[in-house]
TrEMBL record:
<keyword id="KW-1133">Transmembrane helix</keyword>
<feature type="region of interest" description="Disordered">
    <location>
        <begin position="447"/>
        <end position="472"/>
    </location>
</feature>
<feature type="transmembrane region" description="Helical">
    <location>
        <begin position="275"/>
        <end position="295"/>
    </location>
</feature>
<dbReference type="Pfam" id="PF05569">
    <property type="entry name" value="Peptidase_M56"/>
</dbReference>
<feature type="transmembrane region" description="Helical">
    <location>
        <begin position="98"/>
        <end position="125"/>
    </location>
</feature>
<feature type="domain" description="Peptidase M56">
    <location>
        <begin position="167"/>
        <end position="264"/>
    </location>
</feature>
<keyword id="KW-0812">Transmembrane</keyword>
<dbReference type="InterPro" id="IPR008756">
    <property type="entry name" value="Peptidase_M56"/>
</dbReference>
<feature type="coiled-coil region">
    <location>
        <begin position="415"/>
        <end position="445"/>
    </location>
</feature>
<protein>
    <recommendedName>
        <fullName>Peptidase M56 domain-containing protein</fullName>
    </recommendedName>
</protein>
<keyword id="KW-0175">Coiled coil</keyword>
<feature type="transmembrane region" description="Helical">
    <location>
        <begin position="6"/>
        <end position="23"/>
    </location>
</feature>
<keyword id="KW-0472">Membrane</keyword>
<feature type="compositionally biased region" description="Basic and acidic residues">
    <location>
        <begin position="463"/>
        <end position="472"/>
    </location>
</feature>
<feature type="transmembrane region" description="Helical">
    <location>
        <begin position="35"/>
        <end position="54"/>
    </location>
</feature>
<dbReference type="InterPro" id="IPR052173">
    <property type="entry name" value="Beta-lactam_resp_regulator"/>
</dbReference>
Length: 472
């Protein structure tokens, strides 16, 4: 999760930074709108795309862990509770406790922002029902009682009732807001607002929303100038229409603070060659971000090399299921080729000596085995319970196979051994052979699971020919 957030932030920083440097000041507003929407999408989705190279630059991170959504940890001391108390260190919150606290804080802040967002939506929708409305062309004009600057949301234009009825709201203002409606700018803002609520800790999403709003104003300003052709009159109207901010971040309004940039854009000449070059740069940047911040392709398919180390209550250590003394651990680990490719599954028993744990970790660092997956006490217990359950089920399965073999053997031996009965004897004997083979397979499964002191299989009965010859 942390790797995802880091890559998401880096992707957004790259795309948004280059937008401000190369694209924002050019009169290619519809291209810029598409670029900003793709920037929003890439910031969320690029770290999940099935290609990428940036994880090679992140030290201590396994590619397989990136593909699965996990991340490996560097070697750090693991302190069992009993040892923490015994050596006199002050108690510190455990990792699960910190995660729970962080998750609780995230949920709380997200819930507050979501409630505020829904309250703003509710206010706008309820205003459409509570206040008088009028039609201006194909647009619905909502007449508000309070003093506010004109703004639009979805398919409605919101204006002060007195100013509208007195004719103080010019035609240019209505054309401006109708452009927001026709271009469906409200949906852009709703999309970025929802993502901003989920990623409230990343200030770059606030900058992205601001860039989107300014681009929307550029588009609407351009539409007004194309219809009226009077730039100085429109700029004068903008000055008169400016009002204190409405406080609702989801509307397109004349309250926006970057009026100076809008005036500069109206006066900027259009260079077709510069636009074509910068559009090419923008597309290249988007493609680069997709390749750079995705998940490396082979990370999804390659199997990481793994080894397990289990520390118990003595100097005996389990290395890949084999018992070795601690003094031989470093010698054994030094035989592994390319240790940086391994992921170590590190299990520590609750009563393991703290000194032994730190000694093992120092050896892991010296042998460059730094990617660890720690198993807590609960995880270790659940693993042991699962293994015990599997072993018990295998024993029951073997006992059932043994009982069926004995039953079939007795049925076979109860048949009379004579030439006229040979076909029945052979058929029963074949069934006995099949059950015996199944029994041996069950015993083999138990042996692989580590079961010891297995009883010998029951005696195998003689074949039909031998029984007939013995009788004669």
């Amino acid at each position: 999760m942390i790797i995802y957030l880091v890559k998401s932030a880096l992707c957004l920083l790259l795309l948004l930074g280059l937008y401000h440097l190369f694209l924002e000041r050019e009169r290619m507003h519809h291209f810029n709108r598409a670029y900003l929407l793709l920037t929003l999408f890439m910031a969320v989705a690029a770290p999940l795309m099935p290609f990428g190279i940036i994880e090679n630059w992140l030290p201590g991170v396994a590619a397989a862990d990136l593909a699965s959504g996990r991340f490996s940890e560097s070697v750090q001391p693991v302190l069992p509770v009993s040892d923490k108390a015994s050596i006199g260190h002050p108690s510190i919150p455990s990792k699960p406790t910190i995660i729970i606290l962080a998750a609780s804080l995230y949920i709380l802040i997200t819930a507050v922002l979501l409630i505020k967002f829904l309250a703003g939506i509710h206010f706008l929708l309820s205003s459409m029902r509570r206040f008088k409305t009028a039609m201006y062309g194909n647009s619905i004009v909502v007449l508000l009682k309070k003093q506010t600057g004109p703004f639009s949301f979805l398919n409605c234009i919101f204006v002060n009732e007195r100013e509208y009825l007195d004719g103080k709201i010019g035609r240019e203002i209505i054309i401006h807001e109708q452009t927001h409606i026709r271009q469906r700018h409200s949906w852009d803002i709703l999309a970025v607002e929802i993502i901003r609520i989920l990623f409230w800790f990343n200030p770059l999403f606030y900058r992205l929303k601001r860039a989107m709003q300014l681009n929307h104003e550029f588009i609407a300003d351009r539409a007004v100038l194309q219809k009226t052709g009077n730039r100085s009159r429109y700029q004068h109207i903008l000055f008169r229409a400016l009002q204190p901010a409405s406080g609702n971040g989801m509307v397109s309004s004349f309250n926006y603070s970057l009026t100076k940039k809008r005036f500069q854009m109206m006066n900027r000449p259009r260079s077709q060659s510069d636009i074509l070059f910068k559009q090419t740069v923008g597309v290249t940047i988007l493609f680069t971000a997709m390749v750079l911040f995705g998940i490396q392709a082979d990370a999804q398919t390659q199997d990481r090399k793994t080894l397990s180390i289990e520390i118990g209550t003595s100097q005996v250590i389990m290395l890949d299921g084999k018992e070795i003394h601690f003094s031989h651990l470093e010698q054994m680990l030094s035989t592994y080729d390319n240790p940086e490719e391994y992921v170590v599954h590190f299990k520590v028993h609750p009563n393991a000596p703290f000194g032994l744990i730190t000694d093992v970790q120092r050896i892991l660092r010296r042998t460059d085995l730094r990617r660890l997956n720690y198993s807590s006490e609960d995880t270790l217990k659940s693993d042991l319970v699962r293994e015990a359950r599997t072993l018990r089920e295998a024993r029951i399965s073997m006992q059932i196979a043994e009982a069926r073999f004995i039953q079939q053997s007795e049925a076979y031996m109860s048949l009379e051994a004579k030439e006229s009965n040979l076909s029945r004897l052979q058929e029963a004997y074949q069934e006995v052979s099949n059950l015996y083979e199944r029994l041996r397979n069950k015993q083999g499964d138990l042996t692989e699971l580590g079961a010891e002191q297995l009883p010998p299989p029951p005696p195998f009965p003689p074949d039909p020919e031998r029984r007939i010859n013995n009788r004669n």
